[in-house]
Amino acid sequence: MSEILDTQVGAIRFLSLNRPSKMNALTRAMYAGLAKGLNDAAGDFSVRAVVITSEGEHFTAGNDIVDFMDQPPTSDSSEVATFLASLLNFPKPLIAAVKGNAIGVGTTMLLHCDVVVASSSTKFSMPFVTLGLVPEAGSTFLFPALVGYQRAAKIFLTGESFGATEALEMGLIAEIAADPLGTATKIAEQIAQQPPQAVVNTKALLKARNHESVAAVMKAEFEIFALALQSDEAMEAFMKFMAKKGSS
Q: Which Gene3D superfamilies does this UniProt record tie to the protein (predicted)?
């Protein structure tokens, strides 16, 4: 069974994280699957919108630490870099249905989505500094722009988590729903009925002001992230994380 389920219903493409036994922790293969799904959808005229969702109780626990330690994604051609580029450049409406834990990239990828729907119990966190790393996916630009410098700095530097109500108030999500996937699908269907070129052009205009800045920040983040991954500080933080996980 694929760890990324790629299906299409009508004009809506669904990409679902499918590793529920590991809280959908993302491996390099899963990043590659997500990138392929987005890139294929971008070039397929029959696709009017994409919904990113997940199987099981959680959206994602973030990166699979063991997979990362085994082969750190340090090059521009890595699966992680390819996925982040596909997110940045995806031209069609991108909608996310989120529940449970949305950790690390599980939160930062949402900053690239056009509409995010979450369950009331969703917990968001970006514990990059806690793991001896730096934030990625352009989040050091996009998150302060969304919530203000002070709030972004506090969340990034402490690694603290926050809930759906706070995420809604921040503007990170558009709606809280009992059935996030059902609600996200309805929104995607509404968008799919709109004139497609007008939709694509409107998204491009909405993103245009920050696109080049976000691209430049993502490049800088990735370079520092790659260096940090190979540092003693990160290794020590990873080991501490794994030990804590093993004892819990």
A: 2-enoyl-CoA Hydratase, Chain A, domain 1 (3.90.226.10)
